[in-house]
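Appendix B. One record, verbatim.
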Amino acid sequence: MTNGKKTIDDFVAKFHGLGGDTAPKVVPYTFDDVVAGLNSVVANDWATFLRTRLDSNSYHAPLGGLENGGYKLTYTDKPNAWSTLEDQQSESFNFWYSIGLHANKAGNVSDVLKGGVADKSGIGPGMKIVAVNGRAYTPDVLKAAIHDAKDSGPAAELITLNTGYYKVVKLDYHEGERYPTLERVPSVPDRLNDILKPATK
């Protein structure tokens, strides 16, 4: 709205700088204070803007900030650097955007996407994936099965263990591995990188 003349830094300076340069102290604030602070930088219906995002039950996260920042969300069959780092640190593997689950090296399922392929197939948190297409489970074996099922390939077949009971589960999924990535939109200024730049060296 200001064509780059003002940024979120202007709001931060005004909002956190209330009362001048002081020693650290607790300063309570309200929703209306945030709205007033934003309006002091640039006039807008900030209350509606914020309430829409805070109160939304939308299935998808709001993407307007990314799109206005010069990027769009896309998916690729290769993990991005952040996904790879997260997998290494958590020792969990992210199948969230394909079959809709997180599982560790041992096959223990820690989370399942509600309404996703795994959820619809009867897999839930706390279950264990024992085998994939007749082979002992490893993350790479499951990745290969998802890859092989792409397009018209055979559905991946898992053997799961839950409270002492084994169950064969078929995953009706044929879109291959999917990982989120941000794709630059050249026609929009790269505001996201400007926002992320360090304020000091």
